[in-house]
Amino acid sequence: MDSTGSFWLPPQSSTMAGEVDALFNFILYVSTVFFAIVVFGVVFFGLRYRRRGKTGLTTSKDHNLFLEIAWTAIPTVLIVIVFFWGFKDYMRMVVTPAYATEVKVTGQKWFWTFDYPEGANAVNELVVPVNQPVKLLMSSTDVIHSFFVPSFRIKMDVLPNRYSMSWFEATREGEYDLYCTEFCGKGHSEMIGSVKVVSDSAYAAWLEASTVFGEGLTLEEYGEQLYTTKACVTCHTLDGKKLEGPTFLGRFGSEIRMSDGSSVLMDENYMRESILNPKAKVADGYQPVMPTFQGILKDRQVDALIAYIKKINQN
Ligand code: CUA
After folding, report:
1. Which residues pair with 178 in a beta bridge?
2. Cβ(148) to ligand 1 under 6 A?
3. Which listed CATH number (2.130.10.10, 1.20.1530.20, 2.60.40.420, 1.10.10.10) goes with 101-210?
């Protein structure tokens, strides 16, 4: 089977798909063979030994050791094979690679939302990079839903009040159907989405474009958060104490002496420059040791830090 799938199954588009199909096919073929043997036996013996007056009757047998061992041993061996084969695949499906990208999946009546660790979020369209494992941490806000991507051969219930997990590694770029496969009310059949598998660079671009930085926070609140999470706190105090860098307290709006003897008004533009190009104007008494945050902080994050520093200076 290849990228187009077959009449029976959609294309195999995850690392697990081939293994799932192999076991499925094994069970299907074994069942088909035994179905054929049983049907053939019923018809053959029905015809061969049907009642034809007295002449065709045989004496009835009540025991055949060889047959009994055979029909016990053969199915047992087959079941043991299916069990261990299935167990091996199952373990692969439930043990997520440690380096997987984690996406929080929320099911609710009647749509899916996806939240990425970087802050991006999306509705009904899960965007993932190709050839990288993606872990899904899933929960529901209302009733039981179920996350099903046929092309990846994954299906997992999504429950209220607890997390369930699933993971996959998509092997082919493209767009794949996502279904809710647990009846969840009148909109159940509308609860459909897609999984978009894209290249690494397209994924990075999408992530960047879809990320709302500090969503739900005011600039000041977001800046307060960044002050710690982006490690400004390591070198800049809020209480006037001097560390590697100057304190943020009491300096906004005033003239600051630079190490080259000039003075600069500490305003929004100076702060922005100091964050993105810290060596341009170094305050007197400090070493030019601050790394640039160009490319690390997004525009809204720079704005947030500036807003926060201003707030510190208003109190
Ligand atoms: Cu959600 Cu069916």
Report:
1. 193
2. no
3. 2.60.40.420
CA–CA distances in Å: residue 31 to residues 19, 43, 315: 18, 18, 77
- Alpha carbons 80 and 73: distance in angstroms, whole number: 11
182 lines ligand 1 (CB under 6 A): yes
> 178 C-alpha to center of ligand 1: Å?
11
**227-250 confidence digits (pLDDT tens):** 887 778 878 899 888 887 889 888
Is the distance from the beta carbon of residue 184 to the nearest atom of ligand 1 less than 6 Å? yes
The predicted-structure confidence for 67-90, as pLDDT tens digits, reads as follows 899 989 999 999 999 999 999 999
Ligand 1 atom nearest 107 alpha carbon: 1
- Structural domain spans, the chain: 101-210, 219-314
Q: Is the pTM of this model over 0.90?
A: no
Whether 101-210 shares its CATH topology with 219-314 is answered no
120-136 residue pLDDT tens: 778 888 999 999 999 99
Written out in words, the top-level CATH class of the domain with range 219-314 is: mainly alpha
Question: Which residues touch 6 (CB under 8 Å, ≥6 apart)?
Answer: none
